[in-house]
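Long-time lurker. I teach an intro course on protein structure, and each term I like to show students one example going from raw sequence to a predicted 3D structure in token notation. This year I'd like something fresh instead of my usual example. Would anyone be willing to generate the tokens for the chain below so I can use it in lecture? Attribution to the forum is fine with me.
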Amino acid sequence: MKVKKKEFGQFFTEPTIAGFMVDLVLEKNSKTFLDPAVGPGVFPQIANERNPGLTITACEIDPEMIDRFKKENEYPHRLVEEDYLNCRFKEKYDAIICNPPYNKFQSIPGRENLIAEFQHRYHIALSGYSNICVYFLIKSINELKKNGKCCYIIPYEFMNTGYGVVIKQYLLDSGMLKTILKFDNSLNLFEEAITTSCIILLENKKHDRVELVNISDLEELRTGTFQNTKEYLYSELDPKEKWIQYFEAADARIAHRNTVKVSAFGKVSRGIATGANSYFTLNHSMIENRSLSPGVCLPCLTKAPDVKDVVFTEAAFRRLSAMDKKVYIFDGERAETEADFAYIKYGEETDVDKAYLTSHRNPWYAIEDKKPAPILICVFSRERIKVIRNEMGIKNLTAFHGFHLAEPDEELANILFCYLLTPIAQELLYRSRREYGDGLTKFEPNDLTKAEMLDLRLLRTIDRQRILTIYEEIKQQNAEVKIEELDAIFRSYLEA
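-- Reply from a regular --
Happy to contribute to a lecture. Here you go:
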């Protein structure tokens, strides 16, 4: 599948998906068709083949795509060479299909004005964190004729994010939401786009229920036969919840007893963001070559793949340092020697101080004052969530989140770590995931803090002692041993 990504956030649609989407919205009596971000024109091409008498309108802002569309599409159409979000169409449409741009909020020019306009025009208070595709979707919903259909393929992330709450509420309030087809995150639909996609089908008539479909194979689109479908009343869907849970099998959503929020024991927070890792992260050779003083070079875990053991100790750190891994972070505020200040000057000569984060810090070479966390959780994972017991008390960058206990307690930290290693704990945490393409999952600090876990205060003394003994075995052998036994202990409290 060929994909083009530029400043316009373009990822082109696979033909099988495009044909499926056209068939979802196009009726025999459909007269008008709109593609708000047409690209090379795959949607209108298929629509014209299905219904040669269709009146087609297309929008495109990218000059290269405009030229390509004109060369490759000879059927009757109206091409609007303008940003769809700036277009003011007087007419409404029978069919709207779109693969909108996927630019993140940081790349949306004038998003404050867009937010104000959408509040005024469509009565929705969008968050400043909203992906640009959401703006396209909301506008299209309001440009449908009565009984018209709208179909979008967009990142699934807004279904599970804080900024998506108002969007989900808007979809439910509209009464138009008919079907959501979610692609399994093992399907990499768009090269270079690390995202999980879904198809949203809306119809401008009142609905009170929605069909949710899990798609694990594109062959399901070709045959129209879906293996995993569920139907919910609108009243059963909570916009404040992550909607990924509604797609899961019933047995994956079994309620467990004796659970509390992770926040009962502490808080998960992100690691240190430097804004320029290539400058701030150091290895032993760099420190020696620049004669930097020990005081400015703080031990720090910078990359998740560097950590091989589940318990990270000073011995593990020394091994990484000897391998010349970047396991130090430069703290310019501790500069004392001429060499230290020379490195700060080097950063200014190479414009490190002008990067986004550094330019907003005073001084620019300061690093965030974050205390080391006793437990580290990798931000990205596949299959298992990587959990590390930080016995050394080392700092960490944003490749890891830190689990900070409400009160320092080594024994509780060891028990909590053992719990987080188990399948039952990971199963509960996994409900808070955000899915990306190619089987990748991501966890945000707030998602983890709000996740469910076993109330460890309920553990009997005999079980606590056994868990602590197993922790020592894990620490000594530096391997994930006795996980089955740990899992059985914790499950006995969680499952009836």
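Some talking points for your students: Residues 15-250 form a domain with the Rossmann fold fold (CATH 3.40.50.150). Residues 159 and 243 are 6 Å apart (CA to CA).
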